[in-house]
Amino acid sequence: MADFIKSFGSSQNNDPGIRNIPLEKLGLIGGISWHSTVEYYRYINQIVNNYFNSNTNPPLILLNLDQYYIHSLQQSGNWDSIAAMLIEACDKLQQAGASSVIFCANTPHKVYDEVQRNSAIPILHIAHAIGMNIKKRGLCKLGLIGTIFTMEESFITKILKEDYNITVIIPEKEENRKRLHTIIQKELSHGIVNPETKKYILDQLMLLEKRGAEGIILGCTEFPLIIKQNDLEIPIFNTTLMHAQMGADFILGLLKY
User: What is the model's pTM?
Assistant: First the structure.
């Protein structure tokens, strides 16, 4: 995938004739959670509207998965079944006309390699969206919060290190990582946002900053629902927005192959 995508990101085209360009059809695998899926849909539509400076809407196909069932498979460690669900979803989206797919969450990228091997169309990896945005800012050491899987395994951090020379640090204590995971699954994925939870998350982010983090990766697509840039002095990287920008640029033909 590093060779597949070289660059992306163009906010507007001023050519009055550009409205007639063909748009690629993008498949969204959502429902993980639906709250962040809504943000993907909103961002992609708005980015394309902004690009054309009109109400031009992009060709999107959404397939909504059952988050409750996926969480149960995660808890039992049955990632093969999760991969099979995603492969089936990719096949359905391709049959519906999609020429590329994105997972509307970070954690499903744990099985990205298996799903991509069994998909006839490319899947846009969220780690490349993250890496290219951080690289543009010239930062090298980032704090990361997300699910236990995203923080403790390498399916995001390995790409950031090997392809973009970005070092990632996570909360040091296991109990803190577990609580962040619980916040995602028991609160944010249900649309629950409360001040005490926000304070706890911000305390964890400040600890990462004290350990040298130059910025923070909100490595779960639910975290931008509660943490905003004006909450911190160092930059935050909204993975939902960055991934949606990548999806919009695919639709607009702006990804470099």
Answer: 0.90
